[in-house]
Amino acid sequence: MGKLGKRTAAAREAFAGKENLSVEEAVALIKANSNVKFDETLEVAMNLGVDPRHADQMVRGVVGLPNGTGKTMRVAVFARGPKADEAKEAGADIVGAEDLMETVQSGKIEFDRCIATPDMMPIVGRLGKVLGPRNLMPNPKVGTVTMDVADAVKAAKGGEVQFKAEKGGVVHAGIGKLSFDEKKLAENVRAFVGAVAKAKPTGAKGTYMKKINLSSTMGPGVSIAVDDAMSAENA
């Protein structure tokens, strides 16, 4: 194993022995130990007591973070006619139909969120193998298959975050930039945790939220107390 760099070693030492912190304590610790030359993202990883291979244990949803993500979202919309015009007026970066399908099939994916009107799904469905693994496939359950394309585009641009349980029951997302003040980051953490809590599937048995970790893009992680993260009173 290679020798740790001074920055990494110092960060690990600062985090050593600290676990099950309050949201505010964890955010303050992460912000204080970020010393890279770019604005890192605050990331949350939640270990859930579910097996997403079973349909009745799949966790997925969407949440509008109160303070946004700090990230510029590039939005693509599959639509025709007036709905295509609505999408463009709402700020969509890419709008198209068969032409957009061909662009995606060629491997050119220059967007972070994909929205489609219901009539476009036969076309979008052909892109499942390309968009699915990237978690970009439009889905009515998270509001990305809709006739209200303008609202969907505005929501995506305004800091809405989608989440989906991955293999092993882990939900992961970026929920803000470290340049945000501590209160705004804590509010985002609690909003995200609350949304995942509400998305508890019917098939979940035993402890649903097992562990919650916060980290920065380049920094070590620290666990936060589940009860504290679920507490809106501290926000």
TrEMBL record:
Q: Which UniProt keywords apply?
A: Repressor, Ribonucleoprotein, Ribosomal protein, RNA-binding, rRNA-binding, Translation regulation, tRNA-binding
Q: Which PROSITE patterns match?
A: RIBOSOMAL_L1
GO CC terms, sorted: ribosome
Signal peptide range equals: none
Q: Name one Pfam family in it.
A: Ribosomal_L1
Xref: SUPFAM superfamilies: Ribosomal protein L1
Keyword set includes tRNA-binding: yes
* InterPro entries reported for this sequence: Ribosom_uL1_bac-type, Ribosomal_uL1, Ribosomal_uL1-like, Ribosomal_uL1/biogenesis, Ribosomal_uL1_3-a/b-sand, Ribosomal_uL1_CS
Record-stated family = Belongs to the universal ribosomal protein uL1 family.
Classification via HAMAP family: Ribosomal_uL1_B
Q: Tell me, what does this protein do in biology?
A: Protein L1 is also a translational repressor protein, it controls the translation of the L11 operon by binding to its mRNA. Binds directly to 23S rRNA. The L1 stalk is quite mobile in the ribosome, and is involved in E site tRNA release.
PANTHER family recorded = 54S RIBOSOMAL PROTEIN L1, MITOCHONDRIAL, LARGE RIBOSOMAL SUBUNIT PROTEIN UL1M
Oligomeric form and interacting partners? Part of the 50S ribosomal subunit.
Name the UniProt record assigns to this protein: Large ribosomal subunit protein uL1
Q: Which gene encodes it?
A: rplA
